[in-house]
Amino acid sequence: MKIWKRLIASAAAAIMVTVILSVLPMAERHKLASEGAVAVFRAVPVKRLSNENLVDSIIGQQLKLPIRKAEWKQGVLSLDLAIDTRPDRIDIWMSDLERLLDLSFLQTVNVNRLLVRFVAYPAVPGPYKLQAAVDVRRTDSWLSKELAAVDGARPDEDSQWRQKLRMTFVSEMGSSQ
Q1: Spatial CA neighbour of 99 closest among 48, 145, 63
Q2: pLDDT tens, residue by residue, 17-72
């Protein structure tokens, strides 16, 4: 009789282990499905900008304006952002500029200067028209205190912001402000 009790206990233990092992994968799938999409690649914070991670770093900022050109050379990050010519869109310019400043001077340690050109590209192939340019340097004292305020800045109306950003607007006549 002792052998039958041991045999039944062993069989019951084996059945329990089998059931548990078969339920675990389903529970894991259910957990992953409830969490939403699973990332294939893990985002890694960028500390040093380089030619190898330039595109990924800029795309990761999720800019609203299309990027026409990006260049990284000896501590200087240069970008051309395509814009439409409506003046009421400067809020989008400043939002993207704030994200680029954050990438350049808070997320990374090796960007010393950020040059951004806001360029209007024609609908048909032809020459582009430079609308504005920005030159910000890591050594600018205002960066540490006022970086978050760039998003709401109006350098088209505020000369102090134009000076801080070293922002130049190009008028239709070809002169700059």
Answers
A1: 63
A2: 888 888 777 777 766 666 655 555 556 677 888 888 888 888 888 999 999 999 99
Question: What is the value of pTM for the model shown?
Answer: 0.69
| H helix runs in 77-155, sequence order | 90-102, 143-146
- Residue 33 parent element (H or E): helix 2-35
**What is the dihedral angle through the alpha carbons of 139, 50, 80, 94, rounded to the nearest 10 degrees?**
-50
Query: Helix, strand, or coil here: 115?
Result: strand
Query: Residue 101: which of 110, 90, 113, 91 has the closest Cα?
Result: 113
For 114-128, how does the pLDDT look when each residue is reduced to its tens digit (9 = 90+)?
999 999 877 777 788
Residue 174 confidence (pLDDT) above 50 = no
Separation between Cα atoms, residue 78 and residue 69, nearest integer Å? 8
CA 67/CA 84 separation, integer angstroms: 13
| Max intra-chain CA distance, the chain | 106
In 3-state terms, what secondary structure has residue 125?
A: coil
* 142 token code pair: 């205002």
